[in-house]
Specification:
Arc Repressor Mutant, subunit A; 2 domains; three-stranded antiparallel β-sheet
Length: 225
Amino acid sequence: MERADLNAIPEVVIMRLPLYMRALTNMLTKGVEVVSSQDLGDRLGVTPAQIRKDFSYFGRFGKQGRGYNVRYLLGELRQILGLDREWQTAVIGTGRLGGAIIGYPGFAPEGFKVVVAFDVNPEHVGKKTGDVSVLSMDDLEKTIQRMNIQIVILAVPAAEAQAVIDRLVKCGVKAILNYAPVQSQVPPDVRVRNIDPVLSLQSMTYYLKQYATAPATAGRAPATG
């Protein structure tokens, strides 16, 4: 499969690939073997032209007029996203949010293995959350390197987030999923995804306000995100 220059691929395209994967996985479980860009687009609220353009960054996956082989396309997208391997993952912060993240069953099937957690609370350190050992933040750097941690999920207070991220950057972590409500500062080669439910709710209330003043329309809009 041909690959485009990574720097030439818009980030929004990369963000759509997991959505395509989810739709394809659902189709596969229902016995669908071939899908057109039109059908895939209808499920996701994306135009067929946009789907074809997104896929064109990575090569050709289907033939004109024949659609895409669902199983093959799903496998190719998993490979593109690096989901054909296992990623060692750590969680920092083992309070209610961190504990829920550690216990989330959806990570392992997609190749994300939470292997260790960290906390500053002495009541948590030395214990386990589920099957995951909780270590002191004093052990962060040496453990990250020893266990070859590539991804860190951050569930710490906002006031502590940037300092923790700085430590992660210094020990070579390149991918951080941040649940703290802050916009962190990182080098260009480090990817941070910020998860802030409040921001999402604030944007949704705009639509609620519009719906309250607009006449009802038929049909159903596709979910996003």
